[in-house]
Each structure stands twice: as C-alpha cells, then as structure tokens.
Amino acid sequence: xxxxxxxxxxxxxxxxxVIQFVIGALFIGYILWRLNEILRVNPIYGPDTxxxxxxxxxxxxxxxxxxxxxxxxxxxxxxxxxFAHGEIMMIGAFGGYFVFEALNAIPTPTAADPELTFLSAxxxxxxxxxxxxxxxxxxxxxxxxxxxxxxxxxxxxxxxxLISAIGASIFLQNAGQLLFGAQxxxxxxxxxxxxxxxxxxxxxxxxxxxxxTGALTFVLSFLILIGLFTLVQRTRLGRAMRAVAENxxxxxxxxVDVDGVISRTFIxxxxxxxxxxxxxxxxxxxxxxxxxxxxxxxxxxxxxxxxIGNIPGAMLGGFFLGIVEAIGPPILxxxxxxxxxxxxxxxxxVLIFRPTGIMGEVLTEEKV
Amino acid sequence: MKAYxxxxxxxxxxxxxxxxxxxxxxxxxxxxxxxxxxxxSRPGSSILGLxxxxxxQLIFLGLIGIxxxxxxxxxxxxLEDTWKHVLIGxxxxxxxxxxxxxxxxxxxxxxxxxxxxINEYLSQILPxxxxxxxxxxxxxxxxxxxxxxxxxxxxxxGLFGRGVLRSTWRKNIGARRKELWxxxxxxxxxxxxxxxxxxxxxxxxxxxxxxxxxxxxIGQYWNYTVGTIGIYVLLGLGLxxxxxxxxxxxxxxxxxxxxxxxxxxxxxxxxxxxxQWSFWLVLPIGIILASLTGILLxxxxxxxRGDYLAIVTLGFGEIIRILSKSVLLTPFSGGPKGVFxxxxxxxxxxxxxxxxxxxWLITLGCLLVIFVTNRLQNSxxxxxWEAMREDETVAQAMGINxxxxxxxxxxxxAAFAGLGGILFASRNQFTGPEDHSxxxxxxxxxxxxxxxxxxxxxxxxxxxxxxxxxxxLRQLENYRVLFFGVLxxxxxxxxxxxxxxxxxxxxxxxxxxxxxxxxDTADASEGSSPS
Lengths: 368, 531
Fold this sequence. Notes:
A: two-stranded antiparallel sheet, 14 helices, globular, B: two-stranded antiparallel sheet, 72% helix
C-alpha cells in the first residue's frame, strides 16, 4: 500500500513543481554560498556594521508592520487590496509635519534660550499631538475613502473595486502634490529627537548608535501592535470584525452591523497608517507627496509574506521585510540602490512558492 | 429636521468641501483662465467693476453654486416637487456652501494680511491668488460676498433643477428625439444602405484617406500629438486583450513597452553597443523579445488570481525600471541617462523619419493591431478568454486550458506593447528609464477602462479622450493625472462598463436591465449623479 501511494505521489508531481523545486534549491544554495563568502572567507563588514544594519532594519520593519496590518485587516474583511493605503500613510505624515511646523511657530522664550519654541520646550506634548493629529487625519481619510470609492462597489465584480482603489491612490497622490508642492520637505523634529543622536554602545571594534527617533518608532509601534491585537482578540468590535471576515451574511444575521464594522476597520487601519506616516517622518526626516507609495507596496509585500488576512503574520512579515531590506543587499552582493528590487523579488518569490505566506493560513481558492 | 432640509445641508457641505479643495489646488484660477480663453476676454478689461479674471472666476464659482443648489433641492420621494421646497432647499444648500467658501476666504485673507506666507506650505496659494479670490476686497467683505453670492446661486440652481432638469417639457423633448432617431434608423432605405456591404468599405476607405491625408496638413506639433495618441492606442489594444478580454489585471504593462523600446535602442543606436542594425530587422526581434518576456513572466505569475497578479506585475514593472537605471546595468543599458540617437527606419534607401512618416507608420501599426484584435476577439481563443474572465472554474470545466490561454493573452498583449515601445523609441530617437515609469501603465489602464474594457472602438475613444483632450486644454496640464484618478473612481461607481462598452461587458456590469425600464424613468435619473 505504502509503495503504491508513493508511486502515485510521484506521478502527481508536475513539471512545474520540479522547476519550482530546482529554482528554490538554487536560490537557497546561492544565499548560503554568499553567506559563507562574506562571513567567513572574506568578511567585508565587522559585527558593528551588521548590528547597524539590523537596527535600521528592525526600525523600518516596525513601520512596515504597522502599514501591513492595514492591508491585512481590509483584505481579511473585503478581499480587496486597499491600493490607496500608502497614500493614507502620506496624509498622516503631512498631518504630523504641519503640527510640528505650527508648534515651532509658537515662541516660548526662556532666560537661557530666547529662541526656544514650544516644539523643543515641550517635546512630549508635541510628539503626542503630532501622532494624534496624524492618526486622526489618516483615519478620517480612510473612512471617507471607503465611503466614496469602495462602498458603492460592494457587490461588483472583483476587478472593479481594485481599479477604483488604484484611481483613489492616484487621486490622493496628485492632490498631495498639488496642495503641498512637489518638493521634498524636511521634517522638523523637537530638539531632543534630532536625527542621528542616540545611545552609543560598543560592538566589536566600533560603536553602534541606537537613534532616539528609532527607539521611539520601535517602542510606539510595538505598543500600537499589542493594542491592536487585544482589540481584535478581546473586544466586542474585534469579535464583530472577525465575524464579518468569516462570513458577512451570517454576521449580519447575528446582529452585526456589517457596514459599520467595515467603516471602523478602515478607520483603524487608517489610524495605524497615519501613525506609521508620522514615524516615517520623525525617523527618516523627509515628507513629500510620493512618500507613501513605495512603503505601501512594501508593506503589502509584508502582508503577503505573513499570509494576507493574518494579523500576527503581517507583523512578522513587516519585521522580516525590514531586516531583509537592510541586510539583503550586502548578502546578495548588490548595491543598496537595488533594495527595492529585492523587496519586489521577495514578493514574487513568496507568491510563487508559498502564496499562503510564512504563517501559512490556508485560504480557500476564492480568497486567493 | 425635515428630510429635504437635511439633503440640502449635506449637499451644501459636500460642495463646500469641493470648492475648498478646488481653491487650494488653484483649480479655480486655472478654470478662470480657461474661461477667459474661450470667451476671448482681454485680461485688462473690466466687467461690472471687476477685472476679467475675477469675473471669469465668478462664472466658474457660480456654476459650482448652481450645481450645488440643483443637487441640494433634489426631489424627495415623500414630498411633492413644489417651487417652495425647491427654493428653500436650494437656498439652504447655497447658504451652507457659501458659509464654507466664505470662511475659507476669510481665513486665507486674514492670514495673508497678517503676513503669513501660505504658499510655503500650500504651494498653489500665492498672494495674487488670494487677492483675486477676495475680489480685491477685505477678508470680511469677501466672506460676506461669497455667503450672499452662493445663496443666490443655490436658489438659482434649485429653480434650474425644478424648471429644466426635472421638467416635463425636457422629458417630452427627450422622448420625441428618441422617436425621431428610431424612425430615422429604422427607415427602410437606411436599413438597406446599412445592409449593403459596400457601405462599409466606402466608410473605411474614406476614414483611411482621411488618416492618410491628415498628417500632411496639421503641422509638426499636432503630428507629434497624433503619433503619441496612436502609440497609446497600440498599448491600449494590447492591454485590452490582457485586462479586457482575459480579465487579468496587469499593472506592469510598461515593462513590455520598455523591452520593445530598449531592444530597438540598444540594437540601432551608436552608443553603448554600436550595433547599428536596421530598424526593419529589429522590429520583429523586439516584438518577439517582448512577447517572450510576457510568457516568462506569465508562467509563474498566472497561477495567481486577481489582486495578487496586479501587485506582482506592478513589482515586475518597477524592477525593470529600477534595473534599467541601476549602476549594475549601466554599461549595458545606458543607465539613468538613457540611450540617444535611436535609429529610424529607412524605406528603399530613403530615410523614413519625418513626423508625417511616423504618423503613417504608427497608423499602419494601429490598423494591423486592430485587425488582429478583431479577428482574435471573434475566434475560438477570444471566446475562451471571455469565458475565463467570467468564471475560471466553469471555463476549465468546459475544457479550456486556462494556463495556455492566459499565457497567450499575456504574450500577445506584450507583443503589442513591444511594437508600441519600438515605434515610440524610434520616433523620439531616445529612450530612458523615465519613459517607462509606472505612470505609463496607469495611463494605459485608465484609457482602457474609460473607453470600455474589451471593446476596440472604446479603447480608441479612450486614447483620444485621455491623451488628446489634455493637449487641447493645455492649461489643465497640471491637473491631468489628478483627473485620471477621479475618472477611474467615478467610472467604476457610475459606469463600470466604459464609454463604448463591449457587448458582453455591458450585460455583465449593468446591474439593472435598462431595456425593461420605462423610457421616461431612465431619462429622469440623468440630472442627479451619485457622489
């Protein structure tokens, strides 16, 4: 019996699966060879550089995780890619930017420093305010986005809402450009959070800086992620969201307000994208109309990596992608110019080899 | 609160937000310039004590105000459509609209007088723009003016909605026009002429003659524009096969365009390889390369459905663009600077490279592609694609090999894009990474969707509307892409089947069967558009 089954299994393997396996094996072999090359045979970077890469990757990854959750939440409920999610993040980043600029215009002179402004005098309040404004602006735009561009298309064929989402994305991007101009703006941080400042600690022969902005980003996003996880798992709204994701008609029969839950999902995912936008501005220091596009696509990659629709998966996928982007180019022997190519390459590879993602939630064919 | 008042207030708020947005992106000023161009008013002249620009701006704002009033006074199904309701509704909508516009005017006006440089943050709001918006008055006067002006316009809009849009005489005229049209098209002689195959050839022959003679007359600039439109028709017809017929959303379509363009550039240009092959030799090579890439990309990717495909192809398009300008490939592809002096075709020893020649060449390409698409659509393959688009599982059950058919769609679409790329690079004598940005894919997708997925005349119409109109309305250049975005959303919400829909899409996407509805109700819904 066992032999018979084995023969049957071999027969059912198609040429495609063989090619898949060969490509996968070659790829893994190449990575192992490169790792051996750069770590043992010809070490180009010391441990301090690797540490720096890892820190940068983790910080970036925490931002990706926040955005990725938005994709996953919406996909889990509506089975559509919210293409405009990156633009929602851009709106949040601008919200925070304007709060900082406005607070910087309020003078609070002291005897020691006559040019002190509110922004630097009260950094905690300023940052808090920036996050609150950024998140609310993004949440609001998420709500209206759903109401205007997606809700009328609830029962349409699947291509229709996707195209509408692409249109919304183009619209928001260009509205951003027309409103705020095409130039890149420097994000004005409170003095405490000057970019580049941080805790220094020795690793190997050099020192590694853990920037304050990075620490703030990482800790805050971790707190938000925990908050979201409890929201989805423990609260009434979270239960309603899971019910709607599972089956809309049945959820409606059980007394769940489906439209309301979908609206709230967009508000939550928008708020998280807004937080990510403010973090992006504080940590990386640049904001312009195109700032959300590439992070948006990468966060989608992260969501797919973790298995779309799966919340812990999206978090893990975000961190994974951040780290890969930081240490991937040196490992593969490519220039950092090509880090976007690596991210897209991972997306393609994951979709080819394991479309259900790392966490491997098995989706029905209808969902994929 | 009564329902109709609520409706009016909502309309007022919506239009207030729209007016604010239009002001902030300075669309109002641009529209005023456009109106000035159309009415040929001299910029220095003054009308009713206002300069021409201000007057034109008021015309534009007034139109928005009338629209707001018309929408705010929409007929409530529970109430009678009385003049009183219409006036009150329109006035309320206008007042709310004016309140928002007025507060905006007051805010920016007082900020401007306080010396805040608004245009540092909102790049379009120059002091001059604010001055024109306030009509040379103080902020408070300007705000009050807009409150009164918008209220009046709202009332006017309410009257307009009741008196014109929903009036019985308009319905009557509409019905009579339809009757006349029907009697004309169903007339015996007309039917006879239409049934005669000769008519078709005569029409086609005249069109061909027109297309052949037109480039000689219209000059260099318009030849360039017509050429661009033609290339977009090519691209659109290619994407139409992939998206419209086979139902595969490809956002990386520009990759095949890039491969066509780069193959002609690298093989015919003096730098970086100095191969200098003949254009006619490169033409088939480029097309085959593009379609091979389509197949290679398709094999792994086409097992996914819908949304994943969109993102992966988008990623692929970006990969090609980033690679083409990376340091890694600079010796091979010319890097971020691009490739110059791309070769042009020669015909019987003569150079074939003037604008007129390229328009002919592109038109020839379009005709070829239209012919191929038309034959494909009505073939077994075309029907298989459409079956696949409607329901993949059922198509499979009917014995259609979905993978090979998808690959075929991808390969043929890619070949058309490759042809487009070759013509584009050869005409411009240049190609570089910025020619192949994501925007090209988005443009092509927009024109296919606006024109009508799966319909050849639709795609051609879409190319003319989206690539031709911006050339005529040059003032609106900055707002073109913004407009594409709005258009995509609006089309999806109110008319997903496109301007000239293919016959099957029409049936699929129209949820309500309009042919069964009584004719007068179909007419009445025209005045109101969902927001």
